[in-house]
Amino acid sequence: MKIATLVVLALMIVTPTANLFPRAPQRDVPAEVESARRALQGARNDLEHAGGNWGGHRTAAMNHIDQALKELGEAEKFAHEHHDMK
């Protein structure tokens, strides 16, 4: 019995556990940003299928949404480059 106890103790000492060597937390895109991206994509899709030109305002609104989606992409790129997000 003493040998078995020593073997278990040796294995516990030699085998690292997750608590001893924690990893750095993964920082993904925040859920709110991802939700906003999906909402913008949905709004653009709705406008695209709305029909009519609405005096050019529908197209302008779609262009604004495209710009907002581009800004979100740039923000994510900035966060990656400046280690705010992995």
Plain-language structure description:
- The chain is mostly helical.
- The protein has three helices and no strands.
- The longest helix is centred in the C-terminal third of the chain and has 25 residues, at 57-81.
- The radius of gyration is 26 Å and the shape is rod-shaped.
Short description:
The protein is 65% helix and 0% strand.
Q: How many DSSP helices?
A: 3
Mean of the pLDDT scores?
82
Percent range for helical residues? 55-70%
Estimated radius of gyration: 26 Å
The low-confidence runs, each spanning 5 or more residues with pLDDT under 50, are none
The fraction of residues assigned to DSSP E strands is under 5%
Q: Give the overall shape, derived from the CA principal axes.
A: rod-shaped
Q: Summarize the helix and strand pattern as letters.
A: HHH
The total count of strands amounts to 0
Provide key terms for this protein:
single chain; 86 residues; mainly alpha; 3 helices; 65% helix; 0% strand
Furnish the topology, listing elements before pairings:
Blueprint: H1 2-14, H2 31-48, H3 57-81
